[in-house]
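Tokens for chain A. Residues wanted.
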């Protein structure tokens, strides 16, 4: 078996370390290696002089073992070449920033959140890591404390949506939750209390997707009505409507600088369209999906 060959070669002080691992083409097999096999391989890392191969192993190994490879590289005094330095330092920084210490620790549920009575469609975690919002086919949005798992509030009833919750988004300042629903409406909720600030109307069919601009001043929504709407935040005023796709809108995303909005069409469309922000002028249509 591949793992047996890895162990044999690894014992030979790292000789041919990555050749049998064949990282580029057999990443999945790396993921299937046992703890014992990884320990043998890690010991070989400390003794190996195959510089590029070891760095490639750190890049391709499963995350918890990639961390250990990087720590062994550092411990052994491994020095990257100039062309490897940036990649190595970035990986090492990520590894040293990770909270996982024990590579043998199994993945476990931190907690289980229960309360919804139907399928959970969407989730959003606040950027500060304090809250998680969940949206369900039961027409409700629930707010939970992320650290304790305790439910804070259920957003439903008279102020809530009258259809399934399809999408959720939380603004970068952690102050606003936006929900999009099968009832064709969006709702802005103040956080952390979950108080309804405003209901946004205008779509004539289900709201499928949401995107918030990096500066948190704009909200984009996409719908089964084939339309995209651009709204101002935090007041929720409608700014623009785009009706250029020939089918429903299933995905939206702003560029990191906030100057471009990308929209993805559904079954009748198959295209991605790029728009200037905030003018919503067309830039380009990307085609190829079938």
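Reply:
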């Amino acid at each position: 078996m591949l793992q047996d060959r890895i162990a044999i070669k690894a014992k030979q002080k790292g000789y041919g370390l990555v050749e049998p691992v064949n990282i580029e083409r057999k990443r999945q097999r790396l993921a299937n290696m046992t703890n014992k096999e990884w320990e043998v391989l890690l010991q070989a890392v400390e003794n190996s002089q195959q510089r590029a191969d070891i760095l490639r192993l750190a890049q391709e190994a499963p995350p918890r073992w990639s961390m250990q490879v990087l720590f062994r590289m550092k411990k052994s005094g491994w020095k990257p070449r100039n062309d490897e330095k940036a990649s190595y330092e970035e990986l090492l920084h990520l590894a040293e920033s990770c909270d996982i210490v024990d590579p043998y620790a199994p993945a476990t549920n931190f907690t289980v959140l229960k309360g919804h009575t139907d399928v959970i469609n969407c989730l959003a975690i606040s950027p500060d890591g304090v809250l998680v919002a969940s949206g369900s086919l039961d027409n409700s949005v629930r707010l939970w404390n992320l650290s304790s798992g305790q439910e804070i509030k259920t957003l439903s009833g008279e102020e809530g949506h009258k259809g399934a919750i399809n999408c959720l988004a939380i603004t970068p300042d952690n102050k606003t939750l936006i929900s999009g629903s099968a009832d064709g409406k969006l709702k802005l909720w103040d956080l952390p209390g979950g108080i309804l600030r405003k209901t946004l109307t205008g779509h004539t069919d289900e709201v499928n997707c949401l995107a918030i601009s990096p500066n948190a001043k704009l909200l984009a929504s996409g719908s089964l009505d084939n339309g995209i709407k651009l709204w101002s935040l935090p007041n929720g005023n409608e700014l623009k409507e785009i009706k250029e796709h020939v089918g429903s809108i299933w995905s939206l995303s702003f560029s990191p600088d906030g100057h471009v909005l990308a929209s993805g069409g559904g079954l009748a469309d198959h295209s991605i369209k790029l728009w200037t922000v905030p003018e919503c002028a067309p830039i380009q249509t990307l085609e190829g999906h079938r």
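The domain at 120-286 is CATH 2.130.10.10 (Methylamine Dehydrogenase; Chain H). Residues 1-26 have pLDDT under 50 and may be disordered.
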